[in-house]
Please model this.
Amino acid sequence: MKFLKSSLFMVAFLLIAGSSSLAFADSYSKTISVFKQSEAVQPFFKNCYGYAVFPTVGKGGIVFVGGAFGEGQVYRQGNLAGKVSLVKLSIGFQLGGQAFSEIIFFQDKRSHDEFISGNFEFDASVSAVAITAGVQAKAGTEGGTASATAGPATGVQADTHYTKGMVVFVHAKGGLMYEAAIGGQKFSYTPL
Model:
């Protein structure tokens, strides 16, 4: 039991340190600008109903307990509509910590309304497309790896499309984490 408590404390520390210190260095407009530089993401800005952007999501795990946290904003038809928080708890082998930016595009009003309807949660089939060059191959709600990177990928196009009216992109900011865990991202929305 003592080991579990110390593990939970370490995960909480990694999440707070990762998301708090990095969140102040980022602005929403700077994060959106980074995503707009990616050729894979540009069409979604032109044709989406709205999107949610998270400048920094901190993620950490030790042994069998892990989690992630981030705060963001939701935009509807180009206008700020509300604030959103992201929480992920996971159980399974995992070790390390990482920070990344995330953007979720809504294809239409239905998918936007589903996302903001209360406590929305991605199921395990949803994964994110990494827009950065580097070691990161996949970052999904069911696990993955990430590393620091120089910026948006150039010359390589990922196969991207909406799934259930949403598509997710991530931009790795730093850290390294191994995770073979179950759990999904859960979002809580507050309108302005």
